[in-house]
Design goal:
By secondary structure, this protein is mainly alpha-helical. It has five helices and no strands.
Length: 164
C-alpha cells in the first residue's frame, strides 16, 4: 500500500480465485479462429478508397457549380476546380499506394507512412503553386472547395456506419 492507495504492479495480479481480476484490468485478448475472423470481416465491410475519391470528386464538382452560379466568375470557378484537384490528386496517390498488396504488417505501416508523406507533400506543393497556375486566384473559392472535399472523408465513414 502507498499513501495514494494500492501499489500498481505489472503484470496485474490474478484474483484470489486464480483467474483474471476483472475489476481492475481488461481480460487478455483472444485470438480469433479463421471462421470467426471471416464472420467479423463480412460484418464490417471495407470502404473502398476509390469510392471515397469518387465521392470527393462529386462533392467538389457540386461545390464548383455552386460557386460558378453564385459568383458568375470564371476565376472563382477555376480556383474552385484547383481546390478539388489539390485534394483529389494527392489522395489518388495515397489510394494507389494503399491498395497494393503487402506481405507484412511492418511493410504495410511503412508503406502507409510513405504514401501519406507523399500525399501531404503533393498537397502542399499544389497549394504553393496555386497562384502561378491560376492567374487571379480566388483563395476563398479554393479553400471552401478544398474544405468541402476534405470533409467528404467523414461523410463517407458516417455513411458506411449507417449501412450496417
Amino acid at each position: 500500500m502507498t499513501e495514494n492507495g494500492p501499489r500498481k504492479t505489472w503484470p496485474p495480479a490474478a484474483s484470489s480465485a486464480g483467474g483474471w481480476d476483472d475489476e481492475n484490468e481488461e481480460p487478455p485478448v483472444k485470438a480469433l479462429s479463421p471462421d470467426e475472423a471471416a464472420a467479423l470481416k463480412s460484418a464490417l465491410p471495407m470502404l473502398s478508397p476509390w469510392r471515397v475519391l469518387g465521392m470527393q470528386l462529386v462533392a467538389g464538382l457540386l461545390c464548383v457549380a455552386v460557386i460558378r452560379l453564385w459568383t458568375a466568375s470564371g476565376v472563382a470557378m477555376a480556383s474552385a476546380l484547383y481546390g478539388v484537384a489539390a485534394v483529389v490528386l494527392p489522395n489518388m496517390l495515397l489510394a494507389r499506394g494503399m491498395t497494393k498488396r503487402v506481405n507484412s504488417a511492418a511493410a504495410a505501416a511503412a508503406g502507409f507512412m510513405g504514401w501519406e508523406f507523399l500525399k501531404i507533400g503533393a498537397s502542399i506543393a499544389m497549394l504553393v503553386l496555386a497562384p502561378k497556375v491560376v492567374p487571379g486566384l480566388s483563395w476563398p473559392a479554393l479553400l471552401v472547395t478544398l474544405a468541402v472535399c476534405i470533409k467528404v472523408n467523414w461523410l463517407a465513414l458516417a455513411w458506411r456506419g449507417r449501412q450496417n
